[in-house]
Amino acid sequence: MLPNRVRIYQQSKNLLGAIFDSSLASLHRIQLPVLHNSTRQHRMEQVIAKGMKRPRIVIIGAGMSGVSTAHHLLKSTKAASRFDLTVLEASQRVGGRICSAEIGGVRVELGATWIHGIEGSPVYKIAEEIGALDSEQPWEGKDGMIMDTAVRLEGGLNLDLSVVKPVTDLYRSLLLMAQEVGENAAKEDVGIAVGINTHNIKNNSKNQVNSVGAFLREGLAKSFDGNHEGNMQKWDLRAIQKGVFKMHENLERSITGAGSLDDLNLNAYSEYKEFPGGNLPIAKGYSSIVQALASKLPNGMIQFGKKVVRVKWSCDGLEDSKFSEAPVQVCCEDGSIIEADHVVVTVSLGVLKLEAERVRRSAAGDSILGQTLEKDAPSGVAEALCTAALFDPPLPSWKLDCIARLGFGVVDKVFVEFEAPKETLQPVRFVFDDTAALDATDSPDAVPHWAQKLFAVYPTHKMSCVLESWYTGQEALEVEAASDDEVARGIVNTLRRFGVNTPAVRRIRRSKWGTDPLFQGSYSYVAIDASGDDIDTNAKSLPLQEEGSVYKDSSIPPLQLLFAGEATDRYYYGTTHAAYLSGLREAERLLQHYGYLEVP
User: Fold this and answer.
1) What sections of the protein cross the membrane (predicted)?
2) What mean pLDDT is reported for the chain?
3) Which of 3, 63, 84, 316 suits 471 as a labelling partner, its CA being 20 to 30 A distant?
4) CA-closest candidate to residue 183, choices 162, 205, 166
């Protein structure tokens, strides 16, 4: 994920104040059920009654949340030798959507890129402990995210700061206001600098506007209304102002993962929290963090190349005889079956959304083959929908509904290495002409559709011969469908359209998260019809337990399916620290269940 949304645009810390206590002890987590001493004792007696059989825990996925869960379970001195623990990873590496790579002698990130906040961040703490924050090898983001640079119009004209700054100030102020709208904040100083009535915008938006995109457009309209009336020159200026505003919106799309800001829930946007202290890349690569955690697990605990194709579990109303051995069976593509007492599911929200759609179509009796999917659906989804359901029986409707409502975006990065340039490559921010006709696709100098929502192209660091760019939503999927040559040519043509000539392309390196069947996208966001409550629901374990302590039916084995991952954290979703903390949460749920975690 790109640097934290407020940190990019924050003009003054005093505008929002201290959002939250940065200590880990005060992190917003889902409340675990309180188990009384007698309940914990009963659980331990059950284990003894089974001939001291160690509970079998299977973790699906060796990304940040899966490795974090395993690491925390083994870190408990009381429980380390009392669980039979296995981590199943479909690929041949740890990390999931964390994937460090190299191009042109530069260490780059195909997935997670930044530590979002320093003070209190568990990811920063690990990076500091293992010495991953510095490196002799150049790395992406070494000199920060080079963004406050030239803004160009199509044709190559550099925009004067006097044109760009007022729009940028307005946009930053509106974003900070969007953080406040759902909190009913009464601060009026946010928009004073640009002379807008923040009170009216906020009051109107709470009644009429539900998306971040609509809120931003309303703010733009109210702020510049009338500037262009009756004057052609001012009308041109108005178009430029809208273009600069849209440039910032395109950056925000990549930050949030939303293909359109109109699909981003305004109230939930204000719930998002952050660690203070800015954003940092990891010099030795983000993969070093997960690898450091995984290295502390026993050899062989992580089994690679083990793609899970079916999870059979036992829900309410089934016969007790089914639970004679283990309540859950995990079936792998290679034909192996692993029985478990508990399964921690850390697959991406994209995989779960595919499951929700599969169940919906099955229930509706739809014929999947030959159906036309939505235009922004990743290629391969139709084939995936034809495969058997991942969960048997299916997840309950209340959980599938919340999964379907939540958003899961596609964000991709492309790195282009050039032959040694005569001059240092410079970053460029783009203001596209929306009124111009689209280029013919067969034109050799065409700027492709997927490039026309680029917010910038910039070097990985100041002296780099590698330029990077980000693509979101439908544009990201179009990039994934194009060949390397087509992508390289499209980026070079775009730069030329804006007056930037480049040396010959040597090679490119890029991500393809949207069409990767193991992920089906990049990271989550709260969509327009969803809410933070849906994230909490996504995190609930199965079979569902009542509020308090005991389960509805004591004959049904509890905590068969537990869910972790960035999309299960209401306040930090879309980040690696959300994934890490969700793993701790589910490990603690199991530790408490067996009496190894004391509750005050």
Assistant:
1) none
2) 82
3) 63
4) 205
